[in-house]
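Appendix B, example 12.
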Amino acid sequence: MNITFKLYASLAEHLPQQVRPGNAMALEVEPSASIARIIEPFNLPPKLVHLVLVNGRFVPPEARAATTLAEGDVLAIWPPIAGG
């Protein structure tokens, strides 16, 4: 099945070079793949996988290993962001 995978801020460097300007890419995943399994090949530092959203809904860290997606879902991830 196909989903849209988005990485923001410093995490965008883990996307293929050609999709980095838009921070998003189409991604084919197995229907049974959890969020944790989907992001594994991208080698994201675990401490930087802070805010995870599926279709705009927050997925807490303890649910990411069991949460699966559906066709057309959007998986978006942000690192911790500091501001002032």
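The longest helix spans residues 35-39. The chain has a mean pLDDT of 94.
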